[in-house]
Specification:
3 domains; 3-stranded antiparallel sheet; Isoleucyl-tRNA Synthetase, Domain 1; mainly alpha; hypothetical protein PF0899 fold; 371 residues
Length: 371
Amino acid sequence: MLPAVRADEESEIAIASAAQFRQMIENDVARYLTHLDEEQRYLAEVNVRGLLVVKGGAGTGKTAVAVHRLLNLANQPVLFGPGRVLYLCYNSVLARVVDAYRRIRNTLRFMLANTSDFDVSKDAVPLSEMLEIDRYALARAGQFQAEVLAHFEVYEFHPVVAKLQVYCSEDLGAFYLDILKDRLYTTAPKSLARRSAQTALWHISNAMLRWMAPFLSFTAEEAWKVFAPGQSVSIFTETYSDVGGWENVQLFDKWAFVHQVRDLVNKEIEAVRTEGKVGSSLQADIEITANAADFALLATLGDDLKFVTITSKAKLVNGDELKVKVTPSTSKKCDRCWHWRDDVGQDPAHPTICGRCVSNLFGAGETRKVA
């Protein structure tokens, strides 16, 4: 059976002598239900065991839109009819997909919030001047976009949904954004360190909204109006970001190892936390023992190693194998950045904050090179 063609599509074919699309994709469930009369369709709906059915016409409002978002994310069948919308989804699938949507949405919300005072035309930092971890984050985003577009080329949307969830939770949330928080919250608003972070977040958000648009259309469209007000009428008039200049193979190998070291540090801190000796990771001082090659690589992080491991003090020691020693800090806690430092209260005018925060608030500010 030939697919049905709408009246406006017939007009396009008559005018241009060709369809204004390359391929048509049909949904088997929607196509099947379309050919049933009202009585048969009702029986089909109530007799399919385990299906959640949400019906609604003009009065469904936000409820229908919210359900539609989740079902799009789950790649579930959706059928539109005159004055009504029918959604079919297994309850178990809907329960699982809520968490996936929340992770993606919250990641996007964090990035939008931390670029709200950022003007890309005035504040953007050139790629060559950005901090190393920011350049790595952009390189990873460019690599991820290549994976996304490869799936889109063959209409594979579900793998993109799964990969985007992992990207948001592991590459961003559990690593890059976690490390970035100190720089975003404690450095001077217009410092190079903070603007470098915001430049990376702006580019990642700009690309991510386009990745989301095919299957999280409402969320992408609403976020686009906040992210780039007045730039274009819709996210769907945009093309994918040009990420050609972001590639950096050398950083992939280096930061993959740094990621492993950070996982080991977190594991050792968690063991000490279980014993009740520390609370947050910032209460810990760490000593990393590494062989010559690993020592040389970690040494390139310099003093920023403590920011990568989210600890108050990090020391490198030469040794035979990679291991981490965790010691509870004996210093005072800064009320502003929450780091445990020896220089807290050294400035009589600011007795509860550390020298780093005093410099960031009232002086020249600290210098960051890597993270």
